[in-house]
Amino acid sequence: MYNEKVMEYFTNPRNVGEIEDADGIAEVGSPQCGDIMKVYIKVEDNIIKDIKFQTFGCASAIASSSMMTEMVKGKTLDEALKLTNREVVDALGGLPPAKIHCSVMAEDAIRAAIKDYMEKNK
Amino acid sequence: MTRRVYLDNAATTPVHPKVLEEMLPYFTERFGNPSSIHSFGREAKQAIDKAREQVAKALGARTDEIFFTGSGTEADNWAIKGIAYANREKGNHIITTRIEHHAVLHTCEYLEQDGFEVTYLDVDEYGMVDTDKLKSAIKDTTILITVMFANNEIGTIQPVEEIGEIAKERGIYFHTDAVQAFGNVPIDVNKMNIDLLSMSGHKIMGPKGIGVLYIRKGVKIHNLIHGGAQERKRRAGTENLAYVVGLGKAVELAVENLDNHIHRLSGLRDRLIAGIMERIDFVKLNGHPEKRLPNNVNVSIEFVEGESLLLSLDMAGIAASSGSACTSGSLDPSHVLLAIGLPHETAHGSLRFSLGDGTTEEDIEYVLEQLPPIVDRLRAMSPLFSQYKGGKVNV
User: Do B144 and B208 belong to one domain?
Assistant: First the structure.
């Protein structure tokens, strides 16, 4: 069902947790669909210095969140905003068709966290 | 290699070695066509007759009321469509429940598209049908009541005898899907006024691809498959000889072992339920606390999602199942869990362990060792759990 890379990111997810003094926070998904992704970012000089996530969801949701955080950490906000769900899927070596929406959530989550940061720092 | 513990017996069971032994000669030396008149045919026919007797005896039925099918699903389809179309001039109304197996629900939905009217009865928080609601749902046009004997997900056993009584009094046919119940509870079609009953081989240590529909003598039903004279012309096609033999043997063994099975498995079941409750916080037992299949444990573990639980258990060698959407291929969690009133997020976090005759005390202890750290790990990642701990959510 899942490839080894997805299982590895599910079993040993990177960047799990909360950032207490986060500069941007976003939560996407809903309990109804069985997936909630919460992302915390710490921004310095327009760069994502730190990022953490919490996910309630299936293995692909956890793996997608984790992969996304790795992909945007250390990137500028503009670079992070360009991240697409397809890139997350590719980095994971593919997801089953029914699970692509998990990668879309990861894309939505980072964009929403950056938006939250931008609104707070207008 | 990690230990492997199979607790998904409601999905399927292994074939019992005695069943396999009984089946094997019918692939090779006793391969005859039961319709042939020579000795090869006669010994095959005798084997089919014996299996039919084994099943009839187990249900308290007559042999000419037992029809072999290709699956429990086929039996459900035949019972419902066969009754609907054969009794259309009497009426077009069918009563069922919201928690039936899809073999029943989707058949009823199909009939709705063809002019039939279906009432889907609600169930209570334990998954029980209210017989008063059933009575008030009956109309002049009601031709069939189909209510499962016991639920496959939450294990709740329905008041079948009472439903049979109600149906009989009003002259309405009563079908029950007993795929999960057979071999787990005593069944007597006469005492329980059951007109049609579906069962399946592979849930009772028989082979997959074989089922039974019991049809009470005199019940007006359409034939399922047209062709030769097999199954009293009602389901034509050369009999699946070895599988029929296997099903017969599995039924015989299940009946012989019934008391021991119920006693032993309900003990293990209760140990597993109590152990999960003791060791893990925020857990809810789904299904009826007492009127429950001896092999069924279904719990919702708050703040975590079922597929993650299943995969983590699988990595520890434990096979279970879940009503989470992620395991069903749809966006909604199990219709059964929603019907008993669980919120979506709680339904997504459900786990079913279904025990079998191969289940041991050590298996149960192993699950009780492995499950709590898995839940802790997933909860540590869950935003729902940290929100709860932060006091932002009422549970």
Answer: yes
